[in-house]
Design goal:
194 residues; 7 strands; 14% strand; two-stranded parallel ribbon; globular
Length: 194
Protein backbone atom coordinates (compact mmCIF):
# COMPACT_ATOMS: atom_id res chain seq x y z
CA UNK A 1 0.00 0.00 0.00
CA UNK A 2 1.42 3.40 -0.94
CA UNK A 3 0.45 6.29 1.28
CA UNK A 4 0.03 9.72 -0.26
CA UNK A 5 1.56 12.17 2.20
CA UNK A 6 -0.88 14.43 4.01
CA UNK A 7 1.15 17.62 4.10
CA UNK A 8 -1.31 19.28 6.49
CA UNK A 9 -0.79 16.56 9.10
CA UNK A 10 2.96 16.51 8.47
CA UNK A 11 3.13 20.26 9.08
CA UNK A 12 1.06 19.82 12.22
CA UNK A 13 3.36 17.05 13.48
CA UNK A 14 6.44 19.17 12.81
CA UNK A 15 4.93 22.15 14.67
CA UNK A 16 4.05 19.96 17.67
CA UNK A 17 7.52 18.39 17.68
CA UNK A 18 9.22 21.79 17.58
CA UNK A 19 7.27 22.81 20.68
CA UNK A 20 8.48 19.72 22.58
CA UNK A 21 11.85 20.88 23.89
CA UNK A 22 12.90 17.45 25.17
CA UNK A 23 12.14 15.81 21.80
CA UNK A 24 14.07 18.48 19.90
CA UNK A 25 17.02 17.94 22.25
CA UNK A 26 16.75 14.17 21.68
CA UNK A 27 16.80 14.71 17.91
CA UNK A 28 19.86 16.96 18.24
CA UNK A 29 21.69 14.37 20.38
CA UNK A 30 20.81 11.60 17.92
CA UNK A 31 22.08 13.62 14.95
CA UNK A 32 25.48 14.01 16.66
CA UNK A 33 26.01 10.24 16.42
CA UNK A 34 26.43 10.36 12.63
CA UNK A 35 24.32 7.24 12.02
CA UNK A 36 23.05 6.37 8.55
CA UNK A 37 19.32 6.82 7.84
CA UNK A 38 18.31 7.50 11.44
CA UNK A 39 15.21 8.81 13.19
CA UNK A 40 13.40 8.86 16.53
CA UNK A 41 9.95 7.38 16.58
CA UNK A 42 7.29 5.23 18.18
CA UNK A 43 6.25 6.24 21.70
CA UNK A 44 8.37 9.38 21.83
CA UNK A 45 6.55 10.90 18.85
CA UNK A 46 3.15 9.45 19.75
CA UNK A 47 3.32 10.80 23.31
CA UNK A 48 4.27 14.30 22.21
CA UNK A 49 1.39 14.42 19.72
CA UNK A 50 -1.24 12.97 22.06
CA UNK A 51 -0.10 15.27 24.87
CA UNK A 52 -0.59 18.26 22.54
CA UNK A 53 -3.99 17.03 21.34
CA UNK A 54 -5.09 16.58 24.97
CA UNK A 55 -3.85 20.04 25.90
CA UNK A 56 -1.46 18.69 28.53
CA UNK A 57 0.94 21.33 29.81
CA UNK A 58 3.47 18.79 31.14
CA UNK A 59 4.82 15.96 29.01
CA UNK A 60 3.66 12.43 29.76
CA UNK A 61 6.61 10.31 30.93
CA UNK A 62 8.12 8.06 28.28
CA UNK A 63 9.76 4.73 29.09
CA UNK A 64 12.24 4.86 26.29
CA UNK A 65 13.34 6.91 23.33
CA UNK A 66 13.46 4.76 20.21
CA UNK A 67 16.36 5.79 18.01
CA UNK A 68 16.40 3.64 14.90
CA UNK A 69 18.67 3.64 11.90
CA UNK A 70 19.38 1.51 8.85
CA UNK A 71 22.92 0.33 8.16
CA UNK A 72 23.39 -3.23 6.77
CA UNK A 73 27.15 -2.98 7.42
CA UNK A 74 26.64 -2.55 11.17
CA UNK A 75 24.31 -5.12 12.76
CA UNK A 76 25.96 -5.78 16.14
CA UNK A 77 23.31 -5.60 18.88
CA UNK A 78 25.96 -5.02 21.55
CA UNK A 79 27.27 -2.01 19.62
CA UNK A 80 23.73 -0.59 19.60
CA UNK A 81 23.45 -1.12 23.37
CA UNK A 82 26.78 0.61 23.95
CA UNK A 83 25.68 3.48 21.74
CA UNK A 84 22.43 3.81 23.69
CA UNK A 85 24.36 3.97 26.96
CA UNK A 86 26.54 6.78 25.60
CA UNK A 87 23.70 9.20 24.78
CA UNK A 88 22.88 11.72 27.52
CA UNK A 89 19.51 11.70 29.28
CA UNK A 90 17.07 14.14 27.68
CA UNK A 91 13.87 13.12 29.51
CA UNK A 92 13.95 12.13 33.20
CA UNK A 93 13.90 8.35 33.56
CA UNK A 94 13.66 7.59 29.83
CA UNK A 95 16.30 5.22 28.55
CA UNK A 96 17.57 5.30 24.99
CA UNK A 97 16.87 2.27 22.83
CA UNK A 98 19.01 2.16 19.70
CA UNK A 99 18.06 -0.39 17.05
CA UNK A 100 19.48 -0.92 13.59
CA UNK A 101 16.47 -1.89 11.49
CA UNK A 102 18.81 -3.77 9.13
CA UNK A 103 19.44 -6.32 11.91
CA UNK A 104 15.97 -6.75 13.42
CA UNK A 105 15.38 -10.02 11.54
CA UNK A 106 18.13 -11.64 13.63
CA UNK A 107 16.27 -11.34 16.95
CA UNK A 108 12.61 -10.44 16.26
CA UNK A 109 10.36 -13.36 15.27
CA UNK A 110 8.09 -13.29 12.23
CA UNK A 111 4.40 -13.39 13.24
CA UNK A 112 3.73 -16.48 11.11
CA UNK A 113 6.54 -18.52 12.67
CA UNK A 114 8.69 -18.56 9.54
CA UNK A 115 12.21 -17.16 9.42
CA UNK A 116 11.98 -13.36 9.39
CA UNK A 117 12.98 -11.56 6.21
CA UNK A 118 15.48 -8.68 6.58
CA UNK A 119 14.14 -5.19 6.03
CA UNK A 120 15.42 -3.32 2.98
CA UNK A 121 14.97 0.22 4.35
CA UNK A 122 14.26 2.17 7.49
CA UNK A 123 10.76 2.90 6.16
CA UNK A 124 10.04 -0.83 5.91
CA UNK A 125 11.22 -1.32 9.50
CA UNK A 126 9.03 1.51 10.79
CA UNK A 127 6.09 0.18 8.77
CA UNK A 128 6.26 -3.04 10.83
CA UNK A 129 5.87 -1.42 14.26
CA UNK A 130 2.98 -2.87 16.35
CA UNK A 131 0.39 -0.09 15.97
CA UNK A 132 -0.20 2.21 13.03
CA UNK A 133 -0.34 5.26 15.33
CA UNK A 134 3.20 4.55 16.55
CA UNK A 135 4.68 3.71 13.14
CA UNK A 136 5.83 7.31 12.84
CA UNK A 137 9.30 8.82 13.19
CA UNK A 138 11.20 12.09 12.86
CA UNK A 139 14.73 13.09 11.98
CA UNK A 140 16.44 16.46 11.86
CA UNK A 141 19.14 17.72 9.53
CA UNK A 142 22.03 19.98 10.49
CA UNK A 143 19.97 23.03 9.53
CA UNK A 144 17.17 22.07 11.94
CA UNK A 145 14.66 20.93 9.30
CA UNK A 146 12.51 18.01 10.43
CA UNK A 147 11.65 15.05 8.22
CA UNK A 148 8.61 12.84 8.88
CA UNK A 149 8.62 9.10 8.17
CA UNK A 150 5.09 7.69 8.35
CA UNK A 151 4.70 4.62 6.08
CA UNK A 152 1.01 4.21 7.05
CA UNK A 153 0.25 7.91 7.16
CA UNK A 154 -0.64 10.07 10.14
CA UNK A 155 -4.42 9.58 10.35
CA UNK A 156 -4.37 7.11 13.26
CA UNK A 157 -1.88 9.23 15.19
CA UNK A 158 -3.96 12.40 14.87
CA UNK A 159 -7.29 10.59 15.25
CA UNK A 160 -5.87 9.03 18.43
CA UNK A 161 -6.78 5.54 17.28
CA UNK A 162 -4.75 2.49 18.26
CA UNK A 163 -5.03 -0.40 15.79
CA UNK A 164 -3.01 -3.59 15.42
CA UNK A 165 -0.44 -3.62 12.63
CA UNK A 166 -0.07 -7.31 11.70
CA UNK A 167 3.11 -6.91 9.63
CA UNK A 168 5.40 -8.01 12.49
CA UNK A 169 3.48 -8.21 15.78
CA UNK A 170 1.08 -11.04 16.52
CA UNK A 171 -2.34 -10.22 17.94
CA UNK A 172 -1.10 -11.60 21.26
CA UNK A 173 1.87 -9.22 21.26
CA UNK A 174 -0.45 -6.35 20.37
CA UNK A 175 -2.89 -7.16 23.20
CA UNK A 176 -0.04 -7.46 25.70
CA UNK A 177 1.24 -4.03 24.62
CA UNK A 178 -2.23 -2.50 24.93
CA UNK A 179 -2.59 -3.83 28.48
CA UNK A 180 0.91 -2.65 29.46
CA UNK A 181 0.76 0.76 27.78
CA UNK A 182 -2.69 1.67 29.19
CA UNK A 183 -3.26 4.24 26.43
CA UNK A 184 -6.81 5.35 27.42
CA UNK A 185 -5.77 5.82 31.05
CA UNK A 186 -2.92 8.10 30.00
CA UNK A 187 -4.81 9.85 27.18
CA UNK A 188 -8.59 9.63 27.73
CA UNK A 189 -9.54 10.62 24.16
CA UNK A 190 -7.69 7.62 22.69
CA UNK A 191 -9.73 4.80 21.14
CA UNK A 192 -8.21 1.31 21.21
CA UNK A 193 -9.32 -1.34 18.75
CA UNK A 194 -9.13 -4.83 20.34
Amino acid sequence: MIMIPDTHLECRLIAIAKDAKWLMRALAEARKLGLKNWCIGAGAVRSVVWDALHGFTSPTPVEDIDLVYFDPARTDIEADRALAASIPEVFPGARWEVVNQAGVHVWYPAPDGRAPVPFVSIEEGIASWPEYATAVALSVDEGGALTVIAPHGLDDLFSMVVRHNPLRATIGMYRERIARKAFPQRWPMVTVHP
